[in-house]
Amino acid sequence: MTALPSDAAGPRTRGLLHRVRDLEEALDRGGDRLPDDAVLDARRSLSAVRERLALGVDHTVVALVGGTGSGKSSLFNALSGLKFADVGARRPTTSTVTACTWGGADALLDWLGVAPDRRIERESALDGDTQVGLRGLVLLDLPDHDSVAQEHRAVVDRLLPMVDLLVWVVDPQKYADDALHTGYLRHLVGHEGSMLVVLNQVDTVPVGAQGSLLRDIARLLREDGLADVPVHAASATTGDGVPVLRAAIARAVAGRGQAERRAEAELG
């Protein structure tokens, strides 16, 4: 990773870095009076925040996270407009991450650990202004969080704290899966502003039942302690809901403060 010079950071970023330094000094002063596990977790979080801020905040990292069969790789392709992520039986068996960027982000992708052959840049001269709303976006397709391969889950666990916006992709059959709610969502209380949930494969649900299904997902999120998390419905197969999801991601990119907000939540 190549860090930016300190004078390249804006005032908000400098303020956050100052808070990181204050917390690191507090941990040093705490010494043996603080539990070792808590100190280790805190230092890891602070290190991730410092590294992310040092890379600048001109890019917003959005990750599609989901379980086996949720269709997140198909959704990645639908959002990017490219058939780049491996889908279904063609999905690689190694713990790889796929990235699509709107604008160069090599240093950031190096930090995230995305292999060069798993990166693609979406925006080109042929697109005109059709992609301008997503300029600055780094879209990631992560391995399945419930994979039987431990190395896949390790990649997900490593990247979650490094992402600015988490897009949890669920399907009508497994949206209530305990591996998602107990394993991940309940540990993200306080980060509601940095996530949204997408019910993919909504085309497989009768129209009259879609509303109640979305309400049930919102209920489960509230039970997880996550209030006001947006829940979208989409189908990577038919394209329904994809423009709305794309617009929601574009708003996060346009905010130009998602990385700071994520850091604020971590530091809080």
Task: Work out the helix count.
Answer: 9
- What gyration radius follows from the Cα positions, in whole Å? 19 Å
Question: What structural category arises from helix and sheet content?
Answer: alpha/beta
- What is the H-and-E element order? HHEHEHEEHEHEHEHH
Averaged pLDDT, please? 84
Helix content: 40-55%
Low-confidence stretches: 1-9, 90-94
CATH architectural category of the largest domain: 3-Layer(aba) Sandwich
Describe the model.
It is a single chain. This protein has nine helices and seven strands; from the N terminus they run H-H-E-H-E-H-E-E-H-E-H-E-H-E-H-H. With 268 residues, it is an alpha/beta fold. It has two domains: 6-54; 60-257, Rossmann fold, CATH 3.40.50.300. Strands 3-2-4-1-5-6-7 form a seven-stranded mixed sheet, sandwiched between helices. Strand 2 (98-101), helix 4 (106-112) and strand 3 form a beta-alpha-beta unit. Helix 1 (11-30) packs antiparallel against helix 2, helix 1 (11-30) runs parallel beside helix 9 and helix 2 runs antiparallel to helix 9 (258-267). The protein starts with 10 loop residues before the first helix and ends with a helix. Residues 1-9 and 90-94 have low confidence and may be disordered.
